[in-house]
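It would be a great kindness if you could assist me with a short task in structural biology. The matter concerns a single protein, recorded as an amino acid sequence and a row of backbone structure tokens. The record follows directly beneath this note:
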Amino acid sequence: MDIFNILTFDYDRVVDQDIITIDPDWTDILSLNTVDRVAGTYGLVFSLKFTLDSTAQSFLYRFSLDGGTTWGEVYQKEVKDRSNTEVIEVIDVLEHTGGVIQLAVQVTRESTADCIVREAFISAERKG
């Protein structure tokens, strides 16, 4: 048995990426494509820190659990004031049946306000 296939931690990280897309267009911000992983329980963590130079527009993001073939719900976040840095954190559990884990995150904004993803991180870690 290969211990590195059992005790796993895969991640992707980006810093200081300008978001120039406007809804309905999207920017690929994170992707995670593992090698074959054994079946088990995996903890998924997503963290995103961004700035948006507007109080009247929203920052939008969405997830894919199949590498971008299909996308889940669109989430929306507004900033309280133009100098705010907003942080989003999502923690979830994936019951994986074995094989490759493919995660993806896309972001966009509602209009032309300056938007920067200061830091974004996604990971999958075997928990059991």
User: Anything to note?
Assistant: Residues 21 and 108 are 6 Å apart (CA to CA).
